[in-house]
Amino acid sequence: MSPKAFIRNLGCPKNEVDGDIMAGYLQRAGCKLVASPARADFMIVNTCGFVREAKEESIQEILELARYKESGCPKVLIVTGCLAQRYKEELSAGIPEIDHFLGIADLKNILNIVSSGNGKRTFTGRLTKCYQVADVYPVSRPRSFAYLKISDGCDNMCSYCAIPQIRGHHRSRPMKDIADEAKHHISHGVRELVLIGQDTTVYGSDLYGKQSLPLLIDKLSNLDGRFSIRIMYAHPKGLTDKIIGVLLSGKPVLPYLDLPLQHISDRILSAMNRKVTSTGIKDLIMKLRASVPGMMLRTTYLVGYPGETSSDFEKLLRFQEEFDIERVGVFGYSPEEGTKAYGSNVRVRASTIARRIDTLMSLVQEQSLRRNHALIGTVEKLLVDCPAGEGKVWARLSSQAPEVDGHVLLQGKFRRGTAVDARITDAEAYDLYAEPV
Ligand code: SF4
Q: In the chain, what are the domains?
C-alpha cells in the first residue's frame, strides 16, 4: 500500500509553492496525496510564521491535526515552513505530538522524514539556494494560473519584517529553471504565470550581477503557448524604467503591478527603512499611469507602526483618497522578535490600529464599489478559473490577481483557462457578475 500524505498549506503563495514542491517529491517517491488528514499516514502542516495572527492560525492547525493522532491509527505529524524554521524549539517543547520539523531550506528532506520511521528528525538549515525544478516539479493544480517563484529570501531589512531572519538572504533561481517550470505549467493548461518572490525587482542581482527581471520576462515571453505574465511583490525602490518598459513592450505582461507601499508618511517610511520617499512614490505612480495604458495597481498598507501619529495616518488616508490605488490590502503592525522595530516603546494601541484599519478599508471599499459599478454594461475579457456550481464559473478580469483581488461570477459552463468575452451585469465592492456575449 503506498503511504498517504496530507498537506495543509498556510500563509503566502511563496510558502504554497514550497508545499507543492514537497508534494512533488512525495508523489514521485510513490506517496499518494489525500485531501483529508483522517486518511493520511503523514500529516504535514506547512506553516506561516510572519505575523502574530498567522502564527496563531498555524498553531491552531497543528493542534487540530495532532488530534487525529488520538484515533489510534499510527499517524506522523510533520511541521514545515516558516514557523518550523523560526520556532522549532518552542514548538517541540509546547506540542510533543509533533514528530518532525522541516524548515524552508532543503525541501527534499521531506523524503528522509517519511522514510525515517521512528525518532524525531529536524531539518532547519539556512536557505542556501532556491529550489530547482530540474530536481522535481511542483504538483500541478487544476487552476488557470500558476505561481512562479523566481527568488526567495530578502536583503531589504524593513524594520518590521521577520522574513530576512526566516528565509535568509535574497536568492534568485536560474532563468533556465524558471522557464522550464513555466513550460511545465503551460503544458498543463495554465494561462497565467504569476511571478512571485519577496522582492521581484531585484531578481538576478545575485546570480547575474544585475537586475534581470526584464531579461527573465523576455525569456518567458518567447515560450510557446497562449499565456500572460503578472508581476507581484515589486518593491517601489527597485522599479526601474527598464521594468516599466517591459509593461509597455507588447510582451504578454499584464498592465498590472503589485507594488507594496506600506505607508506614505516620510517619517514612517524612513522608520520602516523602506528606502523610498512620498514624493518618489507619487512620481512613480504618476509615471506608471501616464505611460502604461490601462495600468492597474495593487498595494499593501501597514498601519499602527510604532510612533505612527494620527497625522501620519491622515496622510495615508489622503494619499489613498487622491491616488485611488485600485487593489489594496491593509495590515496592522505586529511586533516581531528580532526585527529593528520590536524594541520600540512608542507602540500604537491595538484599538487604535483596529480603528485605523477599519477607516482605511471603508475608504478602499467605497472606491472599489464605485469603480466596479462603472463596469456594469461594459464587455470585458475574462479568464475562467474554476466551476462555481449552479451552471456558473468563477472567472477574473486581467486586473484581478488570483486569490487577493476579488473575482467575477460568470453565467455558463466553461473549461478552466478559457478566455470569455462577457458583459458585466452587476457589481459589489470586490466581486462582479457577468454573462457571456
Ligand atoms: S521587502 Fe521588506 S517587507 Fe518585504 S520581505 Fe523584504 S524585508 Fe520583508
A: 4-123 (3.40.50.12160), 145-373 (3.80.30.20), 379-436 (2.40.50.140)
